[in-house]
# Entry
Amino acid sequence: MGPAWLDCINDPVGSLVAAMVLLAFSGVPGLLIRQPGGGQRFAVIVTLVATLLGSAGAVRILAGAGGSRYLVAWPLPFDRCELAADHLSALFLLPLLLVTACCALYGRAYLPAEQHPATEKRVTLFLGLLSASMALVLLARNGVLLLLAWELMALSSWMLLATNLRDRQVQRAGTVYLLATHTGTMVLYLFFSLLQTRTGSFLFPVEHSISSQGGIAVIMLLAALIGFGAKAGIMPLHIWLPGAHANAPSHVSALMSGIMLKVGLYGILRAVSFFQAVPLWFGWLVLVLGGGSAVAGIALASSQRDLKRLLACSSIENIGIIVLGLGIAFVGMASTNQLLIVFGLIGAFLHLVNHALFKPLLFLGSGVIIHATGTRQIDQMGGLSRPLPRTSLLFLAGSLAICGLPPFNGFVGELFLYLAAFQEGMHAPLPFMAFTAPLLALVGGIAVITFVKLYGLLFLGAPRTPEAAHGHEAPAAMLVPMAVLAGFCLLGGLAAPLLARLVMPVVSTYSGLGQTLVMGLVAPVPLRTVSIMNGLLLGGILLIWLIWHQLVSHRPVVSADTWGCGFLAPTARMQYTGSAFAELSGSIFNTSAIPSVRLAALQPLFAAPSLFCPALTERILDRLLLPVMTGVDWCFSWLRRMQNGHLYLYMLYIFVTLFALMVWSYI
Amino acid sequence: MITFADQLLVLVMLINFIMLGTSRLAFAIRAVAVQGVVLGIIPGLLHQFSGHLLMITASIILAKGVVIPWMINDAVRKAQIRREVEPFIDYVPTLLLGAVFTALAFVFAQRLPLAPEHRELLFVPASIATLMTGFLILTTRRKAISQVIGYLVLENGIFIFGLLLTDAMPFMVEAGALLDLLVGIFVMGIVINHINREFSSVDTSRLQALREE
# Structure
């Protein structure tokens, strides 16, 4: 037995708690260090230490080590303040720690203190607080503690989002985010209050202990779905998401998209685990919401022209796929179909881990591109693979992974969802669920179109603006985190059985099915073959590239413009634009975001110069919510008369209130 | 001794009416000073004599009866305020309202879940009536100075209630409240000065120019 802190670190949960505390305070010394950059360097080192410490704990929990429960002495009257970690928490904590470390290191080069003395301290402080509060959400075993951490998470991410508050777009995105997140939190208050009335305590109840019969249970399930789902960005609760992710600094977007959305999903999973049985309607509701988010999200993404907004919309799609998997599992739980439970959960968990790897990779890559070109507009870039060769390779890896193409990890996760859908289609009497397979295929197809468009417009062709031509490659501190994430993406594809092994214990504990049963169900899936084929594919690609390189390197290379059908003065702006490339998929699938097109009428002969300007609207926000809010504002405008500036009338309000209370007690 | 304290409380309530009915600022200030002195005497009647008690009583009388009224008088002189109260509602209606509220205070005090030994005393109705008077002054008088007087009366009402609440003397609490009040008076003094300088008048209804449109 060593000293107390050593015992604490030896315990897996203890090491996670220690990592959380380290993360929370990582930015504090920076506030006191005068010399620019000192605090930032310190925070990076502390974050790396916390990541190593915490990941060791999370891996040990996933491997089956039981952890202790930690009680924090707090003076609040809301039962015990309990911290613990089980398989489910560990599954979310592992990518959380990894991505936090990558983002912290990346942030050192992305927003160096030497050039951004005004914002750096704030970003460093709140980046640590954000990751610590997310870890606290995952570790909390008390409803009030979870809500506290939830609020801390919302506010610190807002502080990060509002780094560049002078910008009007940032102001708007920040306001929408703040409103959306607090609406969600309000619903969570309802959930946890109802939970308290059911169990008599704010502590989390034992798993599967609450009856799912009756109206209260229905309200609780819906409240959890809405409250946590608003954070996860499930359609139609996604209104805050594109703006927030697009306007935050890139490494913050990476953390928000990669991890914070998942914390919302964790909440749904945790809330559902309290109930004895999942109602069938809830499973189908989740499934339909997931499918809808996936299709609408990727359709929205395909027509975006802002690089980060596109990635943000693609997050909605990926969250949709994960939620679809959860829906399959919940339907399976309601109808005691073990195969659906296991395959749905494995698919969802794998995609969750995968998305936490490749989406931060893409967002970090977008930060490099924005640094190099100074814009987020896809249509002003092009030809970036020459000035940014390494970034282009890493971005390609991320794009392939997010489309679910081999040899990367994205393929493995979606495979399980397809298998669940096919299996159900062959055996069920009414195979509604089989429709998820074509749905997933559709989503995958549009995702490929979207990312071909994105990669092609960014990196291939000729530079459309001088800025794009003179970009510069990122420093190592930005490339290393991206390379680490890309490495994990590739590893997940090449070692598919290992990836499945990571999530199987979580599936078995969450579903309550035995480890051997889960193993038995998964055994027929040819994961080994998948990884061998992935390896062969990668080897083949590398071989062909080597041969091609050998052939080309001996010949003279001539670069010339594309043949312009005889047009004599082609410019780089005449290349395909993003809108043109995505026009087909955009026009077919855009139900939620039809771009409003302003087009000048063409004259019959000798047409004058005319303007074509597609402007994207956020349909739900702009067309539905804002008019409703304006109406509400109008309805309550008479209340504004109460604030009339007369001091004595304010006194009168207090007086009347006091008097009414007195009379009320009299009655 | 208790009956004597009750009679003093009746006096306090009468002073309330004086403050509501008078049209002269100086007279209202003097009335609040007298009320403060009377309230300062009451704890001395209720409790066993001790040096500590003497000190506290003396300091209450000094603060409520001398220092604060003197400061208000000083503010009136410095800000060159006209020596009239300028109410929104005229004196007779306010007096009537004061009477109604005092009656209601008695009715209400009957319904409060009090300890049996407090039931027969005048402390609760006097306290509520004084509170109400304070509010009435705050809401119906236009000048910042009258508002300060309103706050003072309000505080006196709370003080009477405080006398009742604990057998052990709540003087530390009361001392804290007095300190609050002093700070409040200072702030008000500064505010009055600024209102005066800004609008060349101390009419608080001019403050509505500051509201958000």
